[in-house]
Amino acid sequence: MKSLFKLFFLLFFIIFSIESFSQKIIEDYQPVKKDSFKIGTGEKDFFPFIQKGYTLMLPKNQEINGVLIFLEDSKYDQKNRSAKQIYTQASENNFAVLSISTEIPLDFFFSKSSMNSAHEHIQAVFDKYDLPNKNIFFLGASLVGHRAMRYIKFTKENDFKFQLKIEGIVICNFTMDFTRKWYQHKRDIKINRIDLWEPKFINYLLETYLGGTPKTSPENYHNFSSYSYLDEKNENIKIYKDYSIRAYIEPAIKYKLTKQLRTLYENNSTDIVGFLAELKLTGNENTELIVLQAQDNPSSQKTSQLTWDAINKDELMDWIKNQIKK
After folding, report:
1. Domain count, the chain
2. Which terminus of the chain has fewer CB atoms gathered within 10 Å of its CB, N or C?
C-alpha cells in the first residue's frame, strides 16, 4: 500500500512539474500571397512570397517577466529555428518568445513596408496577449540579427505611438557593414572559388535598393549599415548606445581561408568588433564580446546560423536575467 502511495505521489509530482514548466505555443500566419520577388537579372531569378505572421511561446500559468523577439523568416530559416532553441530557458524564467515573419523571403528590410509589417504584428501580439512592455530583448544570427538592427533604427526614427522598451540586443555573427559586404562579394565573384549564388544575389539587392554601389552611393550604404568602417560619422551607432549588448562571433579564420580564400576583411567578425569599439566611444560600457573557438562548435561547416546553434543558451539566459537586475 505504501509503495502504491509513493508511486502515486511520484507520478503526481512529475505531472505537476511538467505542467508547471510546459509552454503554450500560438501560431498565426496568413495564406501565402501568389506572387514573387525579383532577386536577380535572369528570367528565373524570382523567389515566391512566404507566410506573413508570427509564432508566440508563452510560459504557461506564469507572470511574464519580459519578451525575447526574433525577426525570422517563416520558411527559409525553417520557421522559428533560432527562437525555439531558447524556449526552455525562456519559459523557466517566465519570458515569452516571439518570432515575426514578413512576406518577403530573405528580407533585408530594405523597404519601410516590411518594417511596418513587423511593427504592426509586434504591436498586435502585445495587445492581444497583454504582453508586458518591459525587458524586451532582440536576438538573432544572420538576417535575423540584421533585421533587428534595422527595425530598432526604423522605430526610433519614426513617431510611433507604440514603442518597445528595449533592454538589450544579442548579436550573433551577422553583417553590419554593407560597404564591406559588397566588396567581399565583388572579390568572391572575381576569384570564383565558391558558389557565387549568394554574392550575386546580395549584391544585386544592395545595388538595386541602395541606388548603386558603395562607390556611387556611399551614404546610402552607410545609412543602411548599423556600422561601417569607412563611415567617418557612423551616426547609426548612437541609436544603440543605451542598450545592453552581447555579441557572439566565430571568426573561423583558418576555415574561411582554406575553404573560401577569404581574408580577415571578408569576415562578419570585423564588423562586430568595430561596432563594439564605436559603442564604447559613445559611453556604452555594457557590452560583451563572446568569441567561439573551434572546440565550441564541432560542426564541420561555419555559418552564422550554426554559430547560433552552438551558443550555450543557459548561459545566455543568465546574461539576459542579469541585465534586468541592473
Report:
1. 1
2. N
| 3-class SS letters over 202-237 | HHHHHHHHCCCCCCCCHHHHHHHCCCCCCCCCCHHH
**Separation CA 96–CA 69 (nearest Å):** 9
Determine, yes or no, domain membership for 106.
yes
User: Does residue 5 carry a pLDDT above 80?
Assistant: no
CA angle, 112 as apex, 114 and 105 as ends, to 5°?
Answer: 25
pTM: 0.92
Question: 212: which 3 cell numbers?
Answer: 548603386
Q: Report the SS3 class of residue 254.
A: helix
Domain of residue 81, residue span: 24-177+231-325
Between helices 178-191 and 197-209, what is the axis angle to 10°? 140
Q: 179 falls in which pLDDT band (50, 70, 90)?
A: very high
**Percentages (nearest 5) of helix, strand, coil residues in the chain:** 45, 15, 40
